[in-house]
Amino acid sequence: MNQSIVIVNNLSKKYNEVYAVNDISFKVNKGEIFGLLGPNGAGKTTTVEILEGLISPDSGEAIIDGIDAIKNTKKIRSIIGIQLQQNAFFENLNLYEIIDVYSKLYSSNNDPNIILEKVDLVSKKDASYNELSGGQKQRLAIGIALVNDPVVIFLDEPTTGLDPQARRNLWELINNLKGQGKTILLTTHYMEEAEELCDRVAIIENGKIIALNSPQKLISELISSGFKAQKKINEATLDDVFLNLTGKKLI
Amino acid sequence: MKLFFALTIINIKMYFRNKQGIFWTLFFPGFIMIIFGFQSVFSVSENPQISVFISENPSNNSQQKLTEKEEILLNNISNDIKNILGIKTIYRLTNITKNQNYEEDSIIRVNISRDIINNTSLCEKISDSCKVVFTYDESFKKDSLTSKIIIEKNLQKIILENYPELGSNNATKYINSINYILNDEKSKNNYKNWIVPGIAAMAIMQTGIFSVGFTLVRLKRTGTLRRIKATPAGASHFLAAQIATRGIVILLQTYLLLLLGKVFLGADINISNFIFWVNITIISLIGGAVFIGLGLAISGKSRSEDTLAPVANLIVFPMMILSGIFFPVSSLPNWLSNFTQFFPLSFLANLMRSTTMDELQILSSGIQTIGLIVWFVIIFLIAIKLFEWE
What we know:
- By secondary structure, chain A is α/β, with parallel strands linked by helices.
- In chain A, about 35% of the residues lie in helices and about 25% in strands.
- The termini of chain A are far apart.
- The radius of gyration of chain B is 27 Å and the shape is elongated.
- The two termini of chain B are about 25 Å apart.
- Chains A and B meet through helix 2 and helix 3 of A and helix 1 and helix 8 of B.
């Protein structure tokens, strides 16, 4: 019923005899947000960067939109959107110019103004990269991931290091992208983020997928196995207090 | 190609918005050049030498060979100067008529009229046609004044031999009444002519090594280069555009520095000659290629500016000091100058200088150009070997 747009089969990558990615297989369906969830160093970024053509795997296959992502990296790069874990853009250009450069690198004719609108940065059009807040920098990175109208967007820890407001704001943006029919593969080590955003998650540890399902199913599986949470869950968290006090939206 | 041009334009935009970069590539070398040029800090003679000429008496132009008296005088002067000033001074003792061009290199140029040495009616003839022209390089003032005394002593001796009845006191008076023309204007200009092309060459090195090296390392460290690499166009177009931008900056900077030297320091640069600018452009581009290559090579393995800086300085400083930018290589000990003359910056500075200071000499310039090209090939191969995108 669901059409798979990303197919990963038995992917492995070793660094110095240690498996960063160990025989991973999964599929991402069209239009869903798929999360790779795991602690730092679990192999999430390596997996994503193999799909992005930045790292070549030792073995296994990856297919994106019917194209071999390992052999045909150049073609793949033109159909995917990328936000890397470490983002940096040119210091002496304004946002409009930065997006324009990337449009050229992607041979895309998209108007940078439209991209800026999509990621809510129109007011920062003439600002330079260094003048942006952390959340705005991430939104720019996501904007750049959109310049080529990608079939899949890869977001590598998009909210790491952001304050709760900026994080919520970014979740909203990612959900909007999904609403526009985009397929998104994201990595995160925030459980609540996975729960909030992802249709399905793969939990990775030591380079292996140890669970793969929708967040709700994973939770109900756990409960049906007899698990009980140690503490009663609060009706609200400190996060909610903070958000309630400071306002939900970024100004 | 379209992408390359678009990226080059963007890179130029980025370059000229970077105030620090502009300061280091344009203002700083210009500033150093003007300070050093005005002060004439160092001496400039490549081969410091003292030339003593016996000038032709206009009324007596048949005599080309030196007379016995003249030989003796020259030998005495030459031996005395050698003994007193040491081995570094080379003398060219010659008849002036055919040797005007030797004057260029000399720190002292003495032109003694034959009348003083040979004419028996000296006493009546202390006049304009009977003068000693003494030209010296101000930066060798001490040596120059010592030489002047030696020459006076020898002249005094000659006069005393001819007119023993004068006595040494009177002979000294005659010597003093001989017209000395002290001329240091030219040597001051010499230093300006020396420093301006030297600084232009140095600035090419700085832009190549610092502007390319540090920019690339910053792009690598921040992950910008990686993000560019993840685009379908890849990073090679971008890198090519970066290099092209630096090439353009190097040309602009060389033109500006030479014009600055001409306008502010009054260096002898023939700026109205079109061929001169063609030569300068070619030389700057070859030199630029060498040093941009060097910038790429040293940024190849560096992951941060902190690891790059010591390497860059290790290369830049010896070259800046030992390649004849601020003072001639010949003032270094021989074992050192034999080595430093092969520095790429020595080749580039020599080429720049031979273009600005005199007509380009095909043979020696050819050797310098080949030297630079050999360096380019070596550095290019090293850069390819060392360069890493991440």
